[in-house]
Amino acid sequence: MTFQAPHLLLALLLLPLLAWLYWRVVWREAREGYALLPGLEPLRQGSRKDLNPRRYLPLALYGLALFLGLLALARPQAMIPLPDESAGIVLTIDVSGSMRATDIAPSRMEAAKAAARDFVERLPEGIKVGLVSFAGYAILNSPLTTDHAEVLEQISYLERRPNTAIGEGLMESVRAFPLGEDGKVVGSATVILLSDGQNRTGVEPEEAAREATKLGVVVHTIGVGRAGGFDPSIPFAGFDEAELRGIADVTGGRYFAVGSAERLLEVYRELQRQTVWKPQRTEVTAVFSLLAGMLVASSLLLANWKRRVI
User: Fold this and answer.
1) CA distances (Å), 192 to each of 13, 112, 170, 303, in order?
2) SS3 236
3) What percent of the chain has pLDDT over 90?
4) What percent of the chain stands above pLDDT 70?
5) How far apart are CA 285 and CA 76, in angstroms?
6) Which of 14, 155, 182, 247 has the maximal Cβ count within 10 Å?
7) Which residue spans traverse the membrane (predicted)?
8) Where are the domains positioned within the chain?
9) In sequence order, what DSSP letters do the residues of 136-157 get, joined into one string?
10) Which helix (H) or strand (E) holds 76?
11) Of 129, 138, 55, 144, which is closest to residue 94 (Cα–Cα)?
């Protein structure tokens, strides 16, 4: 934690002084006063009940409130995860024929669509997201937009097509990001590419990955399907792990192998936390002030309940 006005923290030095004054003026003198009336022993004995620590709970709360209030004067700041409004994420989904395999229930395609919907539904307002699907060719189903409902609608329209062109899907995704004057993408740019197959046509994935790196796009890849799992009834139903891992490595992303719908949801949620939420230094003066106010109110309520005056 840091402070915008650290010099005001010197005011905390007043707290020990105030505590000493309270002890000197209120507590000590109140007890020594009995020495002036030595014949009032019953009063002295009765005063010992005041040694109950609970009597001083309102005072302790008030002191803590004063401590937090003085901290608030120094305008504290903390690193808090907040939505990165400069972030743009493109969900890139393989819709080739092998996605109808049912090793991931109810099918790879339906599990991928469900995970993508969950990802979009959990996005904070103002975060831009786009959608690209690919099989033998790539389609930009939805450009980068803050209209999450539009992207959800496009996800529901995804249908299987023949062949697999991973490189084409990645290139289409990279082209979805706007470029700045320096020739690189504006803001944080991330592609989450999901595939269950091997590149069969079009641009080589390695070439597309180099282009993404050149433009400043990070690509996370997800291989879908059971480990070593080829469905004999579906051609090319196994993904190329080395190819997907290579794309992630070249672009600075992460690679995941997924064998269940539950794990796929977990991966998308993990990537969302990584790509959308960014620790930012934020002033938390209001939090300290609110806590101080609550402690003062609690102190007054307790004091009134016990009918004591601090």
Assistant:
1) 53, 12, 9, 58
2) coil
3) 46
4) 84
5) 6
6) 247
7) 56-74, 284-305
8) 2-79+281-305, 84-259
9) SSEEEEEEEES-HHHHHHHHHT
10) strand 76-83
11) 138
Q: Which portions of the chain are predicted below pLDDT 50?
A: 34-41, 43-44, 47-49, 228-229, 308-310
Question: Rounded distance, CA 238 to CA 101, Å?
Answer: 10
Q: What is the pLDDT of residue 44?
A: 47
What is the strand order of the sheet 255-258 is part of? 138-145, 128-134, 88-94, 189-195, 217-224, 255-258
This prediction has a pTM of 0.71
Best CA proximity match to 276, nearest among 115, 79, 143, 82? 82
3-class secondary-structure state, position 221: strand
SS3 309: coil
Please give the Cα distance from 61 to 181 (Å, whole number): 57
What is the fold, at CATH topology level, of the domain defined by 84-259?
Answer: Rossmann fold (3.40.50)
Mention every residue, 6+ apart, whose C-beta is less than 8 A from residue 42. none
Rounded to whole angstroms, the Cα distance separating 84 from 87 reads 5
Question: Between the CA of residue 166 and those of 60, 141, 258, 271, 305, what are the distances in Å?
Answer: 65, 16, 17, 20, 71
The residue written with tokens 């505590």 in the block is: 19
SS3 193: strand
**CB-CB contact of 229 with 197 (8 Å):** no
CA distance 144 to 177: 7
Reported as a single tens digit per residue, the pLDDT across 53-92 is 666 787 788 888 888 888 888 888 888 778 888 899 999 9
